[in-house]
Specification:
Chain lengths: 440, 506
């Protein structure tokens, strides 16, 4: 369907819902087309193409609220869908905090052109996709006799989202995404077959890291795991590789959310304007980065994108406040979800920081674990390298780090100048002192 | 609350069916003399001629095989927070996935528009995995006879919202009555009905009706300036009769007890030590340590740590591990897999010997063995892969008390939130939300929030005691693999792992 067809359908649903008894509505229509090509050992393994569309509708009726979604977008089906949705809403209890945002928050959504749609995506042919997926494996083939299997892939998608709110919001976002990468399995000691991978994603095809570089990184990351073992339990510095550091810090998003605070499940409650991290640690949430993987014009509540500090020199500036929990707490909404998170870079490169480390563990991979957002406790599986006198002396695996985020954040002693651009969470190399590693 | 009290006396059902009413039944409940699958053909608005036309497109370039996976899933959820039932949601999903195989290669496409033209277009896309001459679609289709492991009487469409609201309120009231330290409670209830029809180019046809429910209670308590949060949940393939008054009473009781218990809990010390896995959801150990590694796609590719271990001894002789899709009303059970193969119990480890991988169509052909009914997918938007169903260990010769008495210093792991595995090296983890410390053969206090990390084959070989108290997990587990989530369950008797790394502190 064309853009105006979706918008017309959206406005038809908005009007119909009102006729059927809804006081207000918010709705979205999503349309996506995607192609996935997977190669394994020089042959196509999977080829998948799809087009899909769906609609979600939030009903606000006489102080009550419910949300619904369907992928059956014919008007007769939608009318029945809406009738049932509004009927069932009447049986719920009233919730005074459920309301659409103040329309003032909608203003300014297109202040920056974030350029997240690559118009050239439409020209990519089936042959080119296959060639791109195949080529990645080709760069790895024959490079190491211990290789058991090489998988590689190229995936691209185009999606459009239409978003309407009955108190005066209309939004439209069109975006593309390209991902490619490879994974390599190798014969290790005994029956162990280490596998590692490298995948890159970008909004524009031309921004993908080169195929050869990507492929060789996947190979090297697998070779790095050969001979990995656990080392003795010890408290020592943790060096986080830039491409892997987000795995530690994204767990702060839950306790930073207004929902966790209102539900008394956040160890960061009551910390606004307080020092919660080392003075060298700052995070900005910026939805306006050109071609950013987390860039957007508006958020899930329709709030226009705004750049906002989360932490400045270790001081907590802003929680993630959505409209509903903002109403419950009596707080002004900021945004309920993060966009691009950027940890502000320091002075030295990851390699320089590593070379200066007397003893510590460089973490390059996570393996499971969890964190408790109510208490801040964490316990996470790690793999990487034992560093001694600035050198990688032993690959490690099957180890855990455990502690509390309140202490961990204060123990950040250096931030690198190398933020990882290939993620919506741009993290540089980070060095944290006094971390509990458990091993043999 | 009796079942009948619960059925649509007042209020509308939550589900938003967009298709005509339908007799809910698996094959087993079909009406003899009638084609039971006619109900499914009707639901999806198709006939055999349409299927043949779509298959002809799918095989246009000479694919070896094709199948059509029709699905209509209706899901509902309702939520209580801050003492009111203030939110509900529903989802309707309808579509068909078309898969074409050429050797071990897969072409896949799907459409949400079940019109002949849309299906033909999707079929032509999937067909391009092959590049030869057209093949013919089958003339007739034979329905596979299936057992029904989750017979139900009441459709979730017939359960009224008003009744659900009252049920959630009653649970919430009980949570706050249970302990004055509770400051917040949430109750979430979700149900779904999944209708599937699978037809393949060999003339095979199967249908299934898969009901599901999950109810969970979360609470936060405050004690002397400290806060803790925990939860308890039940999940099953069943109708509303599953929610007996006994279960509805246990939900708030367990949720509160598990939360309050954390105030006294310590983080255990770090390092390698003996770990007892308590009976029940500790089966997550099997899911991660061996289950994933036994999925045959990884093995036919040669990339699993178990690739060369078939028929070898991997554990002590009293260790028998199965993956079973036939446990009545258990969350991971299926009457038929998503490739149309009947469900079964598959022996992974028999008396300590590794016996069988979990197969989908491609891997069964690769190994020249019968399929194991393990080809599963998240939805019509995904192609099937070998997946687990309900993975558990059978009872062994020891008792729970003997195992505890045997441990000088270690922990018992009781409640879990998540786990993960790297298939190739076999390294896996699972996160222990709560458990107990054992000193000199006695339980001395609770522990909390600790990740355990080990290596699958090593840990299997270190299972030194297995008790006789096998229990299945009661809560709802969803297994993720290559971006696809499927409902599973797991179980374990109490067992002792003689040494494994516990991610404690200091």
């Amino acid at each position: 369907m064309e853009k105006n067809v979706y918008l017309d359908l959206g406005y038809w649903v908005q009007k119909k819902a009102k006729q059927l008894g809804a006081s207000e509505t918010a709705l979205g229509i999503n349309h996506a087309r995607s192609v996935e090509v997977d190669f394994r050992d020089e042959k196509v393994e999977n080829l998948k193409e799809s087009t899909q569309q769906s609609m979600w509708v939030e009903i606000y009726a006489n102080g009550r609220y419910s949300s619904h979604s369907t992928n059956d977008l014919s008007k007769p089906s939608l009318e029945k869908f809406l009738t049932n949705a509004i009927d069932l809403t009447a049986y719920l209890e009233k919730d005074e905090f459920r309301k659409l945002p103040n329309p003032e928050l909608y203003k300014g959504q297109h202040s920056v052109d974030i350029d997240i749609n690559d118009s050239k995506q439409a020209d990519v042919t089936a042959e080119e996709r296959q060639e791109r997926a195949r080529e990645l494996g080709e760069y790895i083939k024959g490079k190491d006799e211990r290789i058991i299997s090489i998988a590689s892939g190229f995936y691209d998608s185009h999606s459009e989202n239409y978003h309407l709110r009955s108190n005066g919001f209309e939004g439209h976002q069109e975006s593309t995404s390209f991902t490619h990468g490879a994974s390599v399995s190798m014969q290790g000691a005994g029956d162990k077959k280490p596998e590692a991978w490298r995948y890159y994603r970008a909004r524009h095809l031309e921004d993908l890291v080169g195929a050869e570089e990507t492929a060789l990184q996947a190979l090297a990351r697998t070779q790095d795991q050969l001979g990995a073992k656990k080392v003795p339990t010890e408290t020592m510095p943790l060096l986080l590789e830039n491409s892997n550091a987000a795995g530690l810090f994204y767990r702060l998003l839950q306790p930073l959310s207004a929902s966790a605070i209102q539900q008394k499940n956040s160890f960061l409650e009551g910390k606004q304007d307080q020092q919660i991290a080392s003075e060298i640690f700052s995070i900005i949430d910026d939805p306006t980065i050109v071609r950013g993987l987390g860039s957007r014009y508006y958020d899930g509540d329709g709030i226009a994108a705004n750049k906002r500090p989360v932490l400045t020199n270790g001081v907590l500036n802003n929680y993630f406040v959505d409209v509903y929990y903002g109403n419950k707490l009596g707080w002004k909404p900021t945004s309920g979800g993060s966009s691009n998170l950027i940890i502000q870079p320091g002075k030295r490169s990851g390699a320089e920081i590593e070379a200066d480390l007397d003893k510590g563990i460089l973490v390059t991979n996570w393996l499971g674990g969890n964190a408790n957002s109510t208490t801040g406790d964490y316990s996470l599986g790690v793999a990487g390298w034992l560093i001694e006198n600035g050198k990688r002396v032993q690959p490690i695996t099957e180890m855990n780090i455990s502690g509390n985020y309140s202490e961990l954040l204060m123990n950040i002693i250096e931030v690198g100048n190398d933020p990882w651009k290939h993620s919506s969470f741009r993290t540089p190399t980070i060095l944290i002192d006094k971390v509990n590693f458990s091993g043999s | 609350m009796s079942r009948r009290d619960f059925v649509k006396i007042t209020g509308t059902g939550l589900a938003l069916a967009t298709l005509p009413g339908f007799i809910r039944s698996g094959f087993a409940a079909g009406n003899p003399g009638d084609n039971p699958y006619n109900f499914y053909f009707q639901r999806f608005g198709i006939d055999e001629d349409t299927v043949r036309k779509v298959m002809a497109e799918a095989l246009h370039y000479g694919g070896d095989y094709c199948d059509l996976f029709f699905q209509n899933k209706l899901s509902n959820s309702i939520r209580l927070s801050d003492n009111i039932v203030n939110s509900a949601s529903t989802n309707v999903s309808l579509g068909v996935g078309i898969r074409v195989l050429k050797g071990k290669q897969t072409g896949y496409s799907f459409t949400e528009d079940i019109s002949l033209n849309s299906m033909k277009a999707a079929a032509r896309t999937a067909a391009t995995i092959a590049s030869g001459s057209p093949k013919a679609a089958p003339q007739t289709f034979d329905a596979t006879k299936l057992m029904n492991y989750y017979e139900t009487e009441v459709s979730w469409e017939d359960v009224g919202v008003k009744d659900k609201v009252e049920m959630l309120q009653a649970i919430n009231d009980d949570v706050f009555k249970e302990d004055p330290r509770v400051v917040k409670a949430t109750v979430n209830f979700a149900d779904s009905e999944n209708y599937i029809l699978i037809i393949n180019s060999e003339g095979g046809l199967a249908t299934d009706y898969q009901p599901s429910l999950r109810i969970s209670v979360g609470c936060t308590a405050e004690d002397d300036g400290r806060r803790e949060n925990n939860y308890f949940d039940f999940a099953a393939r069943d109708d509303i009769s599953f929610l007996t008054s006994e279960r509805l009473k246990r939900l708030p009781k367990e949720a509160v007890a598990r939360t309050i218990n954390l105030f006294a809990a310590q983080t255990p010390p770090a390092g390698e030590m003996p770990v007892i896995l308590a009976a029940g959801s500790s089966g997550i150990l099997l899911h991660e340590a061996i289950g994933h590694g036994m999925e045959a796609d990884f093995n036919r590719q040669g990339i699993s740590v178990f690739s060369e271990m078939l028929n070898k001894k991997v554990a002590k002789e009293f260790v028998t591990i199965v993956d079973n899709g036939t446990n009545p009303h258990i969350r991971g059970s299926i009457n038929v897999d998503d490739e149309g193969q009947p469900s079964q119990e598959t022996l992974l480890v028999e008396d300590g010997i590794l016996r069988s991988y979990l197969h989908d169509r491609i891997s069964a052909a690769h190994y020249g063995v019968e399929p194991t009914g393990s080809g599963r997918r998240e939805s019509f938007k995904h192609y099937p892969m070998p997946r687990m169903r309900n993975t558990y260990m059978k009872n062994g010769p020891h008792t729970h008390d003997e195992i505890i008495a045997n441990v000088k210093y270690g922990i018992i792991a009781e409640q879990f939130t998540n786990g993960q595995v790297n298939i190739g090296p076999g390294d896996f983890t699972f996160y222990v939300k709560s458990g107990s410390l054992i000193e000199d053969g006695k339980i001395t206090g609770p522990i909390k929030d600790v990740n355990i990390i080990g290596n699958g084959p090593e840990v299997l070989s270190r299972v030194t005691m297995v008790a006789d108290d096998m229990a299945m997990a009661e809560g709802g587990w969803t297994c993720g693999k290559n971006g696809q989530g499927v409902p599973v369950s797991m179980g374990l008797p109490s067992i002792l792992v003689s040494s494994i790394t516990v991610g404690g502190r200091g």
